[in-house]
Amino acid sequence: MLRFVLGLGLLALVFFPVLARAWGPSGHRIVAQLAEQRLSPAAHAQVQRLLAPTADRSLADVATWADDLRDDRSQRALWRATSTLHFVNFTSPGCHYDPPRDCPDGRCVVSAIKTYARILGDRSRSDWERAVALRFVVHFIADAHQPLHAGYRHDRGGNRYQVQLNGRGTHLHAVWDTPVLASRLLGWHAYAAELARTPLPVARGTPAQWAEESCRATRDDNIYPRDHQIDAAYLARMRPLAEQRVREAAARLAELLNRELGRR
Ligand SMILES: [Zn+2]
């Protein structure tokens, strides 16, 4: 009975999600948690050192910070300066990343990952700057792997593709932010433990290629439901792809942190 009631509560979460930005908090924390388990001892020590002045103790603790800026009045300027760095929009029908066209002035997630990775690995920078860069890198690598964060410009990555989810109107981007992963009915900690049972894929590619993969997924993997209806079958069908993207993001985040922070 308790299981049933808990299940109902979780179902309510699945079908009436807070419309989040980017992977919802769970997706971001799962990516961060999986990555942290893959850090070298040297990189892990550097992460701990950079986080030490704050109350945060793990990558999962800081994984949603870049989104949380939006709701923090004291951080309005930083949010405004970084809000376009959570995504990249491609020009249809291809998925070829062309920086001048797709990322003018470096204002997209591909460029942001490179910029903040560079700051993170630059020992001439202050620890404060590098700690901020760490927070952005952890967040933006996950965002780049949410397929609709690197989708097409014409519908703003699914934000203009209206769908019905359990009788309520929403848009496809929001469905991919939270309900697809939430349909597994696991808290983020348990979800990360579940995904950790299988070794993460080998990290490969560049931020531009990660975004191109996301774009191709939105084009080729039937992410867009023709009838605009999101039901349990759709969520179950899409979840393996979402989990694959989470696992790829984690492997690549860990590899980047080991590279930028693992040097003596
Ligand atoms: Zn985001």
Determine Rg (CA atoms, Å).
18 Å
Largest sheet at a glance?
3 strands, mixed
- Domain tally: 1
Beta-strand share of residues = under 5%
Question: What would the CATH topology be?
Answer: P1 Nuclease
Strand order of the largest sheet: 2-1-3
Ligands in the model, by name, code or SMILES, are: zinc ion
Number of strands: 3
Helix content class: 55-70%
Detail the poorly predicted runs.
1-20
* CATH-defined architecture: Orthogonal Bundle
Shape: globular
What does this structure look like?
This protein has 264 residues and is mainly alpha-helical. It has one domain: P1 Nuclease, CATH 1.10.575.10. It is built from 14 helices and three strands. A three-stranded mixed beta sheet has the order 2-1-3. Helix 8 runs parallel beside helix 14. Zinc ion binds at residues 21-22, 66-67, 86, 139, 143. Zinc ion binds next to helix 5 and helix 9.
Notable traits:
single chain; about 260 residues; mainly alpha; P1 Nuclease; three-stranded mixed sheet; 3 strands; about 55% helix; disordered N terminus; binds zinc ion
Short note summarizing the structure:
This protein is 57% helix and 4% strand. The protein has 264 residues and is mostly helical. A hairpin with a 2-residue loop joins strand 1 and strand 2.
